[in-house]
Design goal:
- It is built from twelve helices and 29 strands.
- It has about 525 residues and is of the alpha+beta class.
- The chain has three domains: about 300 residues, 2-Layer Sandwich (Nucleotidyltransferase, domain 5), CATH 3.30.420; about 80 residues, ATPase, substrate binding domain, subdomain 4 (Actin, Chain A, domain 4), CATH 3.90.640.10; about 110 residues, Substrate Binding Domain Of DNAk, Chain A, domain 1.
- Strands 1, 2, 3, 4, 11 and 12 form a six-stranded mixed beta sheet that branches.
């Protein structure tokens, strides 16, 4: 163990990805990605049930996916912190063989083998797997971790990730944004001033972040994202092409046949990966289904890169809507970008690389590993947080990724702090009573970009009472939002007549209470 680690154990960086997860650590002043005993540095974020109380995670779980899809949970990150009734949850229901049900707090939960799991419980198994991998690889106890999330995750999704760490018995030192972690890794050891664009296309999410990088400082200028756009969708486009061919040739409808659809999706993913290096690939899926004549239907076809590119091009184009937004928010032109970082396994696909190079008019940086760079940056930050005061440690200046506002009459939201505002920050706005003789107001705090309450996330609410009875509009209430450097939101409302104050610290919810999280902890359950 190197001298710069805390005495009670090492601190690691974990990229908790939708499709795959990676863990890294600082050793002798350099970041190192850790491998399991088979030499695998990348672990599938897959949890396979059916082994009693101890689920299987990672490479072994991935192998179970094609023959027991109803017991094998993948892409749980797409559900983390989501409300059950959301559009994204409805889309996931159509893609998976296991069940998705509503939790007691309106959150989406996972149902496997008649048992219901909170999503953080499933993600906790992946985190526990990464923790154990790190301990086995280093021979040291893991004391804490910096865990990365998509930059565009809202407060509920970030809290759900913290809860997953807690359940896994892992101290979460900090949650940091994936593109920021990638920039930290890129800038490690560099003394340079650059504007950096991070194009982060992972398994389930897409982020675009623009940073100003100076010696000892990383300042996020803007971030934009889509938390339901990633490699899973590219796989689904190719799988649909295969499915249509099978249905056309066999006359058998595959809707509802999760075993067959999972096999096609697995074949599509393998073909997509192969096409990152080859111009064409043969796709074979034996014994997919029984045809109308009772005979086994096989898949044997050839997919070339040109056809695959046409299939996924609408998804690539969707990413550039987000890129345009982030660039506009940063107030920069593409010519002002000095370096472009490609992050996430999906950026290995040639058409993605070419589209990014064309947009920015320069080739992306080739010196970083898109699968590992986020975990490397997280490990650098973990070391900074635990090694004691270091005058050379980089300072991170972040932004709030989504707009914060107050609910108003008619179901609308009045923005208080626009997205991409540098934090820490404080903003105020004066409101007036909406009804005659109104003696109290309920302050509802929302996060999101819509002007409609129903389209945003409700983060919390409180009541300011004791107002002077008066005609509507006469009593003034000043609402102040403050966000600290860790992203904690404090909201205060002041009756300007009396000076009466009511305030709340917004504690985002993952859909779990603190008592539920404690009861789920693996150390409490003896896992």
């Amino acid at each position: 163990m190197s001298n710069d680690q805390p005495s009670d154990g090492i601190s690691v960086g974990i990229d908790l990805g939708t499709s795959n997860s990676v863990v890294a650590v600082m050793r002798d002043g350099e970041p190192k990605v850790l491998a399991d005993d088979q030499g695998h540095r990348i672990q599938p974020s897959v949890v396979a049930f059916g082994y009693g109380s101890a689920a299987v995670v990672g490479q072994r779980a991935r192998q179970q996916l094609t023959y027991a899809p109803e017991n094998t949970v993948f892409s749980a990150k797409r559900l983390i912190g989501r409300r059950y009734g959301s559009e994204e949850v409805e889309r996931m229901k159509r893609l998976v063989a296991w069940g998705i049900t509503e939790g007691p707090h309106g959150d989406a939960r996972i149902r496997v083998q008649g048992r219901v799991f909170a999503v953080p419980e499933v993600s906790a198994r992946v985190l526990q797997h990464m923790k154990q991998l790190a301990e086995s690889a280093t021979g040291s106890k893991v004391a804490g971790a910096v865990i990365t999330v998509p930059a565009y995750f809202n407060d509920h999704q970030r809290q759900a990730t913290r809860d997953a760490a807690n359940i896994a018995g892992l101290k979460c030192l900090r949650i940091i944004n994936e593109p920021t972690a990638a920039a930290l890794a890129y800038g490690f050891g560099r003394e340079t001033r650059q504007h950096v664009a991070v194009y982060d296309l992972g398994g389930g999410t897409f982020d675009m972040t623009v940073l100003r990088m100076e010696p000892g400082m990383y300042e996020v200028l803007s971030t934009a994202g889509d938390t339901f756009l990633g490699g899973d969708d590219f796989d689904a486009s190719i799988a649909m092409w295969l499915r249509e061919a099978v249905e056309r040739e066999s006359g058998v409808e595959l809707a509802g046949n999760h075993a067959a659809l999972t096999k096609l999706n697995d074949a599509a993913e393998r073909a997509k990966v192969a096409l990152s290096a080859l111009d064409a690939v043969d796709i074979r899926v034996p014994n997919l289904i029984r045809g109308q004549d009772g005979q086994s239907v096989q898949v044997h076809t050839r997919l070339d890169r040109h056809t695959a590119t046409n299939l996924v091009m609408p998804l690539i184009q969707r990413t550039f809507v987000v890129v345009d937004d982030a660039m506009a928010q940063a107030g920069l032109s593409t010519s002002q970008i000095d370096a472009v970082l490609l992050v996430g396994g999906m950026t290995r696909f040639p058409s993605v690389k070419e589209a990014v190079a064309s947009y920015f008019g320069k080739e992306p940086v080739a010196s970083i590993n898109p699968d590992e760079v986020i975990a490397v940056g997280a490990a650098i930050q973990a070391n900074t947080l635990t090694a004691g005061f270091d005058p050379d440690a980089a300072v991170l200046l972040d932004v709030t990724p989504q707009t914060l506002g107050v609910g108003t009459v008619g179901g609308f939201v009045e923005p208080i702090i626009p997205r991409n505002t540098a934090i820490p920050t404080e903003r105020s706005k004066v409101f007036h009573t909406a009804h005659d003789n109104q003696t109290q107001v309920r302050i509802k705090v929302y996060q999101g970009e819509s002007r409609l309450q129903q389209d945003n996330e409700l983060l919390g609410h409180f009541v300011l009472d004791g107002l002077r009875p008066a005609p509507r509009g006469e009593v003034r209430i000043k609402v102040t939002f403050a966000i600290d450097a860790d992203g904690i939101v404090q909201v205060a409302a002041v009756d300007e007549d009396s000076g009466r104050v009511q305030e709340i610290t917004i504690e985002a919810s993952s859909g779990l209470t603190k008592e539920e999280v404690k009861g789920m902890r693996f150390d409490e359950l003896g896992f």
